[in-house]
Design a protein that fits this description.
seven-stranded mixed β-sheet; 124 residues; 60s Ribosomal Protein L30, Chain: A; mainly beta; globular
Length: 124
């Protein structure tokens, strides 16, 4: 996640759509519990096939942030997935970022999340 942020800052890409496949190690994934208004996190040890990774790149408080969801497979071909908090590249990750006009995020009191603010351009 830090690498995506650093790359987007270096390349001056504020927003876009992200797709990726490959292999990652030691991922941390999560599930958002709307009732508790918090993520349930799980750290997975070892290498995983990155079957699908989809998400977006937007601005939060002026800084690029990647919001990604993944589907992962382990050595026994078991599948798991969720919101991706962190992972390291195990062998390779092939990622495509399709640049879009800038989109910002703002805090939403009802959900407790930073959601897209479609009026962001007007309000920044």
């Amino acid at each position: 996640m830090a690498t995506i942020r650093e790359w987007s800052q270096r390349e001056a890409i504020a927003s876009g759509w992200i797709n990726a496949i490959g292999a990652v190690t030691d991922p941390e994934i999560g599930y958002y519990d709307g009732n508790a208004r918090e993520y349930i996190r799980r750290h997975l040890s070892g290498d995983y096939e990155l079957l699908s990774c989809q998400g977006n790149l937007t601005l939060r408080e002026g800084e690029p942030v990647a919001h990604l969801h993944v589907v992962l497979a382990d050595r026994q071909f078991g599948i798991t997935g969720g919101h991706l908090f962190d992972a390291r590249v195990a062998v390779t990750v092939e990622m495509q970022i399709t640049h879009t006009p800038a989109v910002g995020r703002s805090s939403d009191e009802q959900s407790g999340l930073f959601l897209w603010n479609l009026n962001w351009e007007v309000n920044r």
